[in-house]
Amino acid sequence: MASSSSSIVGVLAGLGVVLAHIHGCLGADYKAALTSSLLFYEAQRSGKLPHDQRIKWRGDSALQDGKASGIDLVGGYYDAGDHVKFGFPMAFTLTMLAWSVVEYSPQLGAKHELQNALTAIKWGTDYLLKAHPEPNVLYVQVGDGDSDHGCWMRPEEMTTPRPAYKIDAQHPGSDVAAESAAALAAASIAFKASDGQYSSKLLGHAKQLFEFARNHQGLYQNSVPGVGQFYSSSGFQDELLWAAVWLYCATGDRAYLDYLGGSGNAGGTRTMFSWDDKFAGVQILAAKLVLDGKVQASGVWSDFKSQGEQFLCSCLQKGNNNFRKTPGGLLYFADWNNLQYVTTATFLATVYSDYLAAKHAPIQCVGGLVQPSDLISFAKSQVDYILGSNPNGMSYMVGLGSKYPTQVHHRGASIVSIKTNPTPVECKAGFDLWFHKNAPNPNVLTGAVVGGPNINDQYSDTRTNYNMAETGTANVAPFVGVLARLA
Questions:
Q1: Residue 448: which domain range?
Q2: Is the torsion defined by CA of 123, 99, 304, 379 positive or negative?
Q3: Is 7 part of any domain?
Q4: CA 328 – CA 117 distance, rounded (Å)
Q5: Is 267 exposed, middle or buried (0-12, 13-18, 19+ CB in 10 A)?
Q6: SS3 for 437-450, per residue?
Q7: Residue 5: pLDDT above 60?
Q8: What are the catalytic residues?
Q9: Is 6 a member of any domain?
Q10: Which residues form the Glycoside hydrolase family domain (predicted)?
């Protein structure tokens, strides 16, 4: 018996080593994923690249942006696999990157990624400051979507037109102006500790943009019709509230709190949190104000909190109207670029877990109590799925693990680097030479989170399948904070 019991002890000890190794690998994966997620933004940069650029296959691009309109609009980010600079999703990306820093700067610092996160934000906010030359003027797009999508070229040698489109008092766009205000306000908090002067500058522009959005109301696609088929806005009330709550967080000015509390519209329980729909984010931030005792737990404040919590209940399958899940356990919101909604939902669950834990409070869902630990477990399940714990054994973050998408729908990544082969790739020729080539992209788009698998956990690794294989800056931004929290 002694020998068998000692062998059992030996097996258990060996199993413990294996489990510890697995756990260690997972922990390392979160850190590697965090590093990769911030590298992704360097691949999406437009403009004159800095000397410390880490993604070496990219070069300078779009150096004349804004010139025809008499303004310098060089810089910022390409939103996805194409080369248009769309201000609406870019601003949301920056808000989410900044929120990640606001919540998790100690964790980012501990993993030596805080400076990289701030650099990623600043590349975008520097551009937003340029795009806002007057209180009631904001440039919201550079490039033409139709002609851009008609070419398959590297950004470094684009020949497509680069018109600049703006909103102003006569041609308003409350959604994009308010989202830009939110981005700059959130970023002002992120930079407050390290660069007070820059923080103040961001906040000044944020205040002006909020007033512009509030005083000249309208949907931006009515002022810039071409944007409608790419990033059409479904409304602007959510962005106005989103800007107000971030401005309150940045300033402590009760006027912004009064605007939020006086809205009379808490948004209802949402079906997603995205570049177009900020209500769930507003609700979670308002819920923190309730938890912190900054506002009373009644009226519209109670509505904000309960509706934000109901969104999370639905994520955890404990709500009135639970979100769909794939057989492998992934939340499923939409057939096109589903993972952008998974990363945002996961971010809200992660930050709200921390808000609740600080107050030792649970959520009362229809399906039972949800503890802060349940929210983190849920977030972790979604992150683990995205990073490879799924029926395909594939990481949907490019460059992470041994199996990941190799044919990302992305012009720059799919064409040999101009530094490797400077032979020009013409507009239409790029389709035959590279787009339709059934081979891995020559450049690895490190850190990109693709659109992801379908409702049955199936993924087609083909460049032509943009529903699944395209990435976007808004896909990755929420993931930065979540990974910092888990790493």
A1: 30-486
A2: positive
A3: no
A4: 31
A5: buried
A6: CCCCCCCCCCCCEE
A7: no
A8: 409
A9: no
A10: 30-483
Nearest to 192 by CA among 182, 183, 204, 202: 202
Over 90: is that where the pLDDT of 3 sits?
no
Closest CA to 281 of 292, 290, 272: 272
Helix (H) or strand (E) run with residue 324 in it:
strand 324-325
In a domain, 18, yes or no: no
Give, to the nearest 10 degrees, the angle between helix 279-291 and helix 237-251.
40
The pLDDT of 364-377, averaged and rounded, is: 98
Query: Are the C-beta atoms of 136 and 209 separated by less than 8 Å?
Result: no
Q: What is the mean pLDDT of residues 243-266?
A: 97
| CATH assignment of the domain containing 159 | 1.50.10.10
Residues in the chain: 487
Closest CA to 471 of 184, 82, 148, 172: 82
Count of domains for the chain: 1
Q: Which residue has the tokens 């600080």?
A: 358
Q: Are 168 and 157 in contact (CB under 8 A)?
A: no
Does residue 24 carry a pLDDT above 50? no
Tokens (6 digits) for 469:
């294989």
Does residue 229 belong to any structural domain of this protein?
Answer: yes
Distance (Å, whole) CA 6 – CA 18: 18
Pairing relationship of beta strands 138-142 and 164-167 according to DSSP bridges: antiparallel
Mean pLDDT of the chain: 94
Q: Report pLDDT digits (tens) over 305-361.
A: 999 999 999 999 999 999 999 999 999 999 999 999 999 999 999 999 999 999 999
For range 207-218, the mean pLDDT: 98
As beta bridge partners, residue 372 has none
Listed in sequence order, the DSSP H helices in 292-422 are 299-315, 339-359, 372-386, 411-414
- Considering Cα of 177, then 179, then 182, then 186, what sign does the dihedral take? negative
User: Whole-angstrom Cα distance, residue 164 to residue 72?
Assistant: 10
SS3 content of the chain, % helix, strand, coil (to 5): 55, 5, 40
Helices (H) and strands (E) in the chain, counts: 18, 7
Looking up tokens 């979100």 gives 323
DSSP labels for 156-196? GG--S---EEEE-SSS--HHHHHHHHHHHHHHHHHHTTT-H
Q: Report how far residue 417's alpha carbon sits from residue 424's, in angstroms, rounded to the nearest whole number.
A: 11
Asked if pLDDT for residue 14 goes beyond 80, the answer is no
**Confidence class of residue 133 from pLDDT cuts 50, 70 and 90?**
very high
On the question of pLDDT at 21 being above 50, the answer is: no
Whole-number Cα distances in Å, 173 to 215, 223, 227, 242: 11, 7, 12, 15
User: Is the pLDDT score of 136 beyond 90?
Assistant: yes
